């Protein structure tokens, strides 16, 4: 049984600022292996032309975003739907048509439209309003991971739950590669008389799109090589966790222990290695991960962070917190229609006010 008092010193005003984890990664092919980061659309103002998110530092180093804060959160959060972890949080499922969507998979968490259009709408609205008043307990009863990975009720109360746990993967000293390809159809459809000659560009483009013509693909994104390192940086902000309060001191302590247990479990879980096609990363055995407890005065000390022990603490904290039962709710079309109509009304009023 884990000692629930072991981290209570972290909740004091003079407690540490954060836990910082650094983990070096490498492609499964090796240090010089080619990996593929995500590509992003061009910015509206044209300053970013689209493609890989690569920053050029003053010293000439090129740094590429491999997995963003939001993407990492979406990869880590579903941990709490797996066996051995599911009992730590309420399992909220929305039935929408033929799909069953877990709250743990909703992109905006407790502030997501899929939850706002169910019978949970009023409960969540009340929880967000309580959060604005300084009481995080109602939200923790429904969606505790929204307190850990962050949530913004941008379509309703405007309440924000700051992200307590952030994780990002970046590659340093990157060299960009390109690739070209040529699609060859299975038959010469036009010359063999299997299809008529296209009579305009639109028809010609359709042949290409449907795989009836030779299609070259030249100088497209071909991945990167990291000459320095690929690194995952994760931070658990203990200073922010101390801002979470409930209506009474005893409930505040239960709340903080519970949220800390979930956060430590998420932080200590090994990072997902397969991020996307062409980007399968594993820990670098030559550079073991480091975990530091960073104090408010800047001092750093090594912190042993064992996942099994974190899970044991989280389990005991969850029992003391009395995790709410899971719920299955239906997506309500009428609530969705009303939500859209209300949004249009607000936009119209805003336009009239400007006029």
How is this fold's topology laid out?
Blueprint: E1 18-27, E2 39-40, E3 51-52, E4 54-56, E5 62-67, H1 69-76, E6 92-96, E7 99-102, H2 113-116, H3 121-132, H4 137-142, H5 145-149, E8 151-152, E9 160-161, E10 165-183, H6 201-209, E11 215-237, H7 238-241, H8 249-268, E12 274-276, E13 279-283, E14 290-294, E15 300-302, H9 307-321, E16 327-330, H10 333-354
Parallel strand pairs: 6-16
Antiparallel strand pairs: 1-11, 1-13, 1-14, 2-3, 4-5, 5-10, 6-7, 8-9, 10-11, 12-13, 14-15
Describe the protein's architecture and organization:
This protein is an alpha+beta fold and 355 residues long. The protein has one domain. 30% of the residues lie in helices and 28% in strands. The chain has helices spanning 69-76, 113-116, 121-132, 137-142, 145-149, 201-209, 238-241, 249-268, 307-321, 333-354; strands spanning 18-27, 39-40, 51-52, 54-56, 62-67, 92-96, 99-102, 151-152, 160-161, 165-183, 215-237, 274-276, 279-283, 290-294, 300-302, 327-330. A hairpin with a 5-residue loop joins strand 4 and strand 5. Helix 8 packs antiparallel against helix 9.
